[in-house]
Amino acid sequence: MSEKTVFKRIIDGELPADIVYQDDLxxxxxxxxxxxxxxxxxIPRKEIxxxxxxxxxxxxxxxxxxxxxxxxxxxxxxxxxxxxVINDGPAGGQEVHHLHVxxxxxxxxxxxxG
Length: 114
Ligand code: DGP
Description:
Strand order of the largest sheet: 1-2-3-5-4
CATH superfamily: HIT-like
Number of domains: 1
Bound molecules: 2'-deoxyguanosine-5'-monophosphate
CATH architecture: 2-Layer Sandwich
């Protein structure tokens, strides 16, 4: 059996996290290595390794994650805007193999991203 990811361990309460929102479907907590004054990760409780492995069955869940991302941004006072990022796979720079949505804000975002 493959090892639990750190995010699964947070879901299971085995690792501490600064949780800012949670419901039946997802959890949002502060990134341990923030890239902006506000950097929150929104993750599904369901173990989906990466966006490209989500299926039609996950359509509602994916929409929910985005709505929660916007809700968290509002809660964090990001009225001026924010950035949402999903890294997928090695070329996308994904390090933790549990789908997560980055919510970044509190500074001016630039384009292109690195
Ligand atoms: P990605 O590169 O998209 O897979 O982003 C993974 C993010 O997860 C990265 O910004 C750092 C964050 N992270 C890794 N381990 C932990 C942890 O144990 N706790 C928290 N809060 N964040 C973590």
